[in-house]
Amino acid sequence: MDLSLYKLTPVEQWITDKYLENCIFTPLDLDIDRIARMFGGEIVYMPTKSHARWEDDGTRDFLINLDSRLDEPDARGAFFHELCHPLRHIGNQAMLPKAFKDLQETQASLFQQYASIPFFMVQELELPSYEREIPYYWAHVFNVPVTLASRRYHQIKARIFREQSDLEFMSHQRSLYRKADPANWCDEAKEMFRLAIQRKKDKGVVFE
User: Fold this and answer.
1) How confident is the model at residue 196 (pLDDT cuts 50, 70, 90)?
2) Where is pLDDT greater, at 5 or 96?
3) Domain range holding 127?
4) In 10 A of CB 207, how many CB atoms?
5) Do the domain assignments include residue 153?
6) For residue 39, what is the DSSP state?
7) How many domains, in total, are found in the chain?
8) pLDDT score recorded for residue 139
């Protein structure tokens, strides 16, 4: 897996910039209470479903309730999912149409992957020899559920594959253009083309 081919999305770049601005450089720096305070919020723990509440008054102050019954990796995964809502969304989600709510949940799932396993940190890791071990390794390093690490792994791998495919397609197209350019033809092809043109001229074909 060639990580050099990976391209950040705008949201991913925004998260990266925020982390670097606040001296969050390594997986050990990804303390969820610190990150919540960094963005103007706080965390509480209660035995209810994890959720976020925030003010739409421009302050973006927020409170994230994490289900106290979750183990640490699951709680961290829930935090990074819920963090997206006050930072990137507006309005009461419970009052939104289902399609719009589903869109926000999809966005939160991607945000969760970007924020919990930042790519700039992944680049600094020595990956396991076998790719199948990577999600388990990331889950351990970033202290998140294996399912979350697996989604992030497949997301990164798919984006790299698309980039490789795009580069191969562009290379193929350039090779076609080079072959179509008479300046790149071999001597035999040039001679055949010259004879074909001559025959058409002999037949009285007019070239404009």
Assistant:
1) confident
2) 5
3) 3-164
4) 6
5) yes
6) T
7) 1
8) 98
205: three-class secondary structure by DSSP: coil
Instruction: Supply the pLDDT for residue 191.
Output: 72
Burial (0-12, 13-18, 19+ Cβ within 10 Å), 25? middle
Sequential DSSP letters for 57-124: TTT--EEEEEETTS-HHHHHHHHHHHHHHHHH--S-GGGS-HHHHHHHHHHHHHHHHHHHS-HHHHTT
Instruction: Classify residue 114: in a domain, yes or no.
Output: yes
Task: Say whether pTM exceeds 0.90.
Answer: no
Q: Confirm whether 59 is domain-assigned.
A: yes
Could you tell me if residue 203 is inside a domain? no
List Cβ neighbours of 55 (8 Å cut-off, separation of 6 or more): 61, 62
Count CB neighbours of 46 within 10 A: 12
Task: Please give the backbone phi and psi of residue 67, each rounded to the nearest 5 degrees, phi first.
Answer: -60, 115
d(C-alpha 178, C-alpha 206), whole Å:
28
The torsion defined by the Cα of 68, 72, 73 and 77, in degrees rounded to 10, comes to 40
- Report the C-alpha gap between 109 and 73 in whole angstroms: 16
Which of the four pLDDT bands, split at 50, 70 and 90, describes residue 206? very low
Residues sharing a CB contact under 8 Å with residue 178, sequence separation 6 or more, in sequence order? 184
Q: Which tokens belong to 55?
A: 């003010």
